[in-house]
Design a protein that fits this description.
This protein has 3 helices and no strands.
């Protein structure tokens, strides 16, 4: 147990390396071309920024 108290950081590094290896393996399995062919359609974009400017401007008008 004394070894674990002194070298706990090595266990964390091994865990992170294992995690990165698994992520790399999973990403290698993704077929980008197949996904792009069967990509779901996105709903139309709704932009509500035009609604905040409906009121008259408070700036004085130039003559």
């Amino acid at each position: 147990m004394e070894w674990v108290k002194e070298h706990w950081w090595i266990l964390i590094i091994l865990f992170m390396v294992g995690l990165l290896v698994n992520v790399y393996k999973d990403l290698k399995r993704v077929d980008v071309k197949k996904y792009l062919d069967n990509k779901p359609k996105l709903p139309p974009h709704r932009d509500f920024n035009d609604k905040w400017d409906d009121e008259e401007d408070d700036w004085p008008k130039k003559k």
